[in-house]
């Protein structure tokens, strides 16, 4: 390939390489900027979403509490309305009609009972005839309202739950009657909570957020179970499919919960960020994971590629054309210099070269002319120098023999020292690796022991709290047993009173028989009293049996609780002993770790010094070998020098230092 072509090719490659490197650097910086922007956006989205999730979790409970207060006010108004209507002498049908008008407009269920708990007025036709009972097994939802008849509670506000008659979810509140004991109840079907959840709930919030650059949103509870999730595919489809968390996401969630602030990581073109969700009191309620994809990366890379092509065309093409022109300007004087050099190589030193100008190639051509003149002078001096070289060659041969002996001795010693130093360096490297491994193991052992001691201390505190709770529970059981004993005394007294009542009723019956027709009414009353006394006696026996069963169960529970408490106390003592032993183990482990770190640092210093010595000896050995080789070569060269001196004179005669007079 001609010189000007090589120069043009090298220039073009350099220009295109510079353009490519600049474009690559621009793309890298742009991608970093886009990822930083994506990280900032993802952190902001996750933080806002966590706050919104905490707000959405608290709003339904607050709204339900406020609705309960409003329903209490409505129940008090209904109680006043029923009392006023009954006082005014309105019939039951008229009062019920007015209540149904009120309930029909507001979508509520209104109930007002009599003194026995029978629902006299009820607007819900599905319920049928209904009576409030105090038995929770019969009425799990409604039994609490029976306490309003006894005057134990002024009002009852119940959370939304399924009712017994049709399994619909209702929220009920109740108040006492105004004019007499009664239950006034207001119920509202809890569909408004579902509407509230659709408007403010987590599912709608996630569904509205997923899409575009937000590829995935997942809201987790305090147990790291997925509550709501949304994922957008590449074609824009949004699904709520829940996939298990991978280990990287779990680690990200633990880090954000422990730090109390959002944390993120880059996964390809995605940026995943986790943010903690906290309740109003500051306690953790879960976490939020957001995955944000940056389409700007692909757009930026495509734009950078186009920019690189345009830059190559705009900058590279003129540069290549300029390189071609420059190559031709450089190649012309170089060709003239090459012709002159071929003449000199052929032994013709009589040629006269033209002036080359002030450029680099022109100066090169002028230098060839001056070199030709200098060579003519040099050839004439070489003849005289040949004689002097013969004398110098003889002296150099003698000195070379002595130097060769010294170098051989030094090379053998250097090889032995280098081998020993290499073995020391290899041993130091092995010791350094071994001490590094032992140091890492000791650090890990200290860390594991420290974690184990912390876990045992936490376990001891938890078991002590459990022991205190069991003590309190045992005291409660003792109190229940004492109260049950008091009930037994009362039941015995009732049984005695029932027996006395029965005897009195028998005597009254005898006296009524004696009175004849005039005592018939008294006799009926006496028989009824005796029947009630018999029923009281039977009920008293049932109560006594139930009290005995309860006392037996309480006693058994107390004994079992004492046994469990003793077992817990033993385990607390064992855990304390293990924690104490682990603490005694931890101190030596930490001391050994520090000692190993000191040894490791010393081994690093020793290994570095051994490597330096090994490298220095290797260089000395290599230098000695090179010197020995050079000495051998030099010895051979001296022999060649003798022959060359003779040949030099023959070759000098080949050069023409003046024009041949025979040439016209």
Strand content: 5-15%
CATH domain class of the largest domain = Alpha Beta
- CATH architectural category of the largest domain: 2-Layer Sandwich
Q: Helix segment count? A: 9
Q: Could you tell me the number of beta strands?
A: 12
CATH topology of the largest domain: Beta-Lactamase
Mean of residue pLDDT values = 72
Structural class by sheet pairing and helices: alpha+beta
* Principal-axes shape call: elongated
Residue share in helix? over 70%
Low-pLDDT residue intervals, each spanning 5 or more residues: none
List keywords for this structure.
Helix Hairpins; six-stranded antiparallel beta sheet; 3 domains; Beta-Lactamase; 664 residues; single chain; elongated; 9 helices
Could you describe the 3D structure shown?
It is built from 9 helices and 12 strands. The protein is an alpha+beta fold. Strands 1, 2, 3, 4, 5 and 6 form a 6-stranded antiparallel β-sheet that branches. The protein has a 6-stranded antiparallel β-sheet with strand order 9-8-7-12-11-10. Helix 1 packs antiparallel against helix 7, helix 7 (296-345) runs antiparallel to helix 8 and helix 8 packs antiparallel against helix 9 (520-652). The protein starts with a helix and ends in a 12-residue tail after the last helix.
